[in-house]
Amino acid sequence: MSSENFTKEQSLDPDDWQLMRALGQRMVDDMLTYLETVRDRHVWQPIPREVKEYFNQPLPMEAQGPERTYRDFLEYVLPHPMGNIHPRFWGWVIGTGTPLGMLADMLAAGMNPNVGGADHIANYVESQVLNWCKEMLAYPAEASGLLVSGGSMANLIGLTVARNTKAEFDLRQQGIYASSRKMTLYGSKETHSSVQKAVELLGLGSNAFRQISVNKDFQIDLFELETAIARDRETDCQPFCVVGNAGTVNTGAIDDLEALAQICDRENLWFHVDGAFGALAGLSPKLRPLVGGMEKADSLAFDLHKWMYMPYEVGCALVQNEEAHRKAFALTPDYLTHSDRGLAGGKIWFSDYGVQLSRGFRALKVWMSLKEHGVQKYGKVIKQNVDQAQYLAKLVEDSADLQLLAPVPLNIVCFRFIADQHDNKTLNELNKELLIQLHESGVAAPSYTLINGRYALRVAITNHRSRREDFEVLVDEVVRLGNKLKGTKTQRV
Fold it and tell me: Second label for 7, Cα 20 to 30 Å away, from 18, 202, 296, 428?
């Protein structure tokens, strides 16, 4: 049959590659300028109502072309960011990104591989990145690992392996209801909410997660932990895991990881460490002792898009026992059978170690960034952030208008405006309004938490662009806004 009888086949490639090349070069130039000039802009500003309404448009049925589409991005998207690339963004625990990291993501999207398995180069890049992660955190070289979307998924990976390994039956086949005893696990009350989410997703129920009190430094109370384990054994529960924190999200507290490793070894429990950002303190020789013991964890979760400043998203899960890790997830139907030769060959099938079969090329930006800067540079910048936290804490302590609310062991500073006010409820409301006005001013963007019932302005420094003068600006603006609000009486707040 002649091909002339068919309608011309179409593609999504451009009709004019030269025009697309010119547009792409303009995009790269615009975004590099955007990063270069970030300090000249507000950290964050409220999105205008008309911009929000623009995103109620109906589904586009006809083409508008790349040029107009890019103009829409420049007008409606780029001017209204979260702000986390700015030097004075210190909200939650959110990284900053880098220019080469941005370009690496473009390169990865251009190659567009599925890094679930098969014999292609992206798998080898990820494998090397995982080996580098193990080396830089002194984790056993024979451990397995997986790059994931972030710390939440890394915690889910580690805790899934823990549950399946410690279950007294074939959990994958029989399900959690086959257990004759309630499986329980333990962590401090400061443990990140992603751990509770993981426990719920794993079918254990949130009340299986025993949340242990903390000491004055917000570390897990070891005596209460051991008491809870013993009590559960006496009531015919099955303790199976302890979660240690290498940097809690509220204050940056680090549990006594060496002691937790010893308890887990003695009690035959899985030891999981949530090191979402704090594990990377290990990159600094001066800070490494703070996270001593994490290399003994059966599983370790951490993020590279937080304190290694990679563009979103990329986290990592490491598991000491490769066989246990693979047994928790591997499933190979006929259409995914591994081969000795051809495209389906190769020893690396990351789909055997996690939930996803379809996986993006997250490893490229990590691989390129580590080669660009070297791990020693990362250690120096991480230590710089810790020194900046100490500098901010001193600025707070030196101000009669401010109060430090928690110790500063790492890179998080929690404080509030007080002036001459001592009523906690009034202070909480005042500081809530102060934070909102600080955000709306565009000057700085810390976040918030409650420390022993006191509303705190929370500064989490995972920002390679911050300078000491930025923290001076923050303190000056908090004092200015606080005094302004104090003068308007409580009805204003």
Answer: 18
Tokens of 207: 């009340």
Tokens representing 129 are 């990145």
368, 469, 361: which is closest to 120 by C-alpha?
Answer: 361
Strands 445-451 and 412-417: unpaired
The residues pairing with 273 across neighbouring beta strands, listed in sequence order, are 244, 300
Q: The sheet that has 402-404: what strands, in order across it? A: 89-90, 445-451, 454-460, 412-417, 402-404
pTM to 2 decimal places: 0.95
Segment 274-302, tens digit of pLDDT: 999 999 999 999 999 999 999 999 999 99
Q: What is the dihedral of CA 152, 154, 155, 158, to 10 degrees?
A: 160
Q: Left (φ > 0), alpha (ψ -120 to 50) or beta: where does 118 sit?
A: left
Closest listed residue to residue 318, CA positions, set 127, 167, 450: 127
For β-strands 454-460 and 412-417, DSSP reports them as antiparallel
What are the chain's domains? Answer: 15-44+81-98+375-493 (3.90.1150.170), 113-373 (3.40.640.10)
What Rg, from alpha-carbon coordinates, does the chain have?
A: 25
Instruction: Enumerate residues 6+ apart whose C-beta is below 8 A from 347.
Output: none
| Single-letter amino acid, residue 262 | Q
Helix (H, G, I), strand (E, B) or coil at 71: helix
Q: Is 353 helix (H, G, I), strand (E, B) or coil?
A: helix
For 185-194, b/e burial (b = at least 16 CB within 10 A) is: bbbbebbbeb
> For residue range 363-380, what is the model confidence (pLDDT) as tens digits?
999 999 999 999 999 999
Q: How far apart are CA 379 and CA 323, in angstroms?
A: 32
The rounded distance, in Å, linking the Cα atoms of 29 and 26 is: 5
Query: Which whole-number Å values give the CA distances from 156 to 9, 45, 163, 315, in the listed order?
Result: 45, 34, 10, 12
Distance separating the N- and C-terminal Cα atoms of the chain: 78
